[in-house]
Amino acid sequence: MSPLVKIRSERDQMSAVERRIADFIVENAQLLRDYSSQQLANALGISQSSVVKFTQKLGFKGYPDLKYSIGEAIARAAPGETATVSPTQETASSGLADRLWRRKCAAEEETRVINAPEAIQAVAEAIDRAGRSGRVFLLGMGDDDVLVRTFALRLATLGILAVHSFDMVRMTSNVAAAQAGDVLVVISEFGQHAALGKIARQFRERRGQLVTLTRHTANPLRTLADLSLVVSAHDEQPYIQPLLYQSAMQHLLDGLFVRLCEGHDDRRRQLLGNLERIQHILEP
Question: SIS domain: from which residue to which, for each copy (predicted)?
């Protein structure tokens, strides 16, 4: 994994000091060769030992090893590294739309590398099983509910009818009817909302399988999950960060949908038949 992608993807798990080091390295990656560990520490007003511990925590032997690895990544000019220049440089070299696109690409790449293919496959298989012999429940609040509704519609085209609602009272009633073999998929950016946690606990009491999709942070909802997928998306601008989260989460859900399509001929036939019927209805 590219060291810069690794740093960005692990940022949400870092302490405040570690995040300062991470942000400095990412924003000044091309200049890092001119910094010793002491100079980097002085620039941030922290101890040199903090820099060394940071590099070792990432799996490098020391700061020189990290610096060399980043230099190699920049020399290879991997696609994932094109978004590592500073905001000032970005504004000077490209338009706002191009800059946003590159940041979204970086968030999607970080999200991809922190979710093992086996974990994504396990979630897809759980949804597929529940769609055949049980029920799939979907839950999200606010902007996450938009993602839930879109995913529910896509599941429906595959013949998987999902029970979903943004109304917590109604969803509580729905979950009360859950049985073993059912799956509840909860999408929650921060995984902190008390109502979501209560419904998740109620669902597990019914012996259902809980799947959560949240940010790559330790949160109460994620600790309850039987299966969990995570998103890495951060930006110093408060109006950019939610856009990166939405984009990365949508990309993750799209990946689940594709896995449900591929390798299941009956699902694919159902999809094609439904798309044809939908097109017939929409025709004048």
Answer: 123-262
